[in-house]
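Lecture notes, unit on protein representations.

Consider one protein chain, 112 amino acids long.
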Amino acid sequence: MRTLYWILAGSLAALAGLFALNNRGELTVDLWPIGPQMQLPIFVALVGALYFGFLFGALVAWLAGGAARKRAREMARKAAKLDLELQELKVKQSGAAVETPPPIPLPPGSPF
């Protein structure tokens, strides 16, 4: 499985390198409302757009999972509280079940 991973990763890296070498032409990127025009190689613009899309998607997924993470934290706190309560009840039950017998009176004249 590890060999298959390295074969695929190496192939993708080689394709990315070939793509970058074959697409070195200039591209004008105009970020009209926020900045001036820029001249970038085509592969830089495309890879930058891919990175931006990945980061934006990761942010959206993280924000969407906020409610689930909050619920998981609450459940973990509740489980810890119930576990502590269970341990206390076990200690209380074992203490109540084991009663110490009354002390045996020593005979008169005993050295103890």
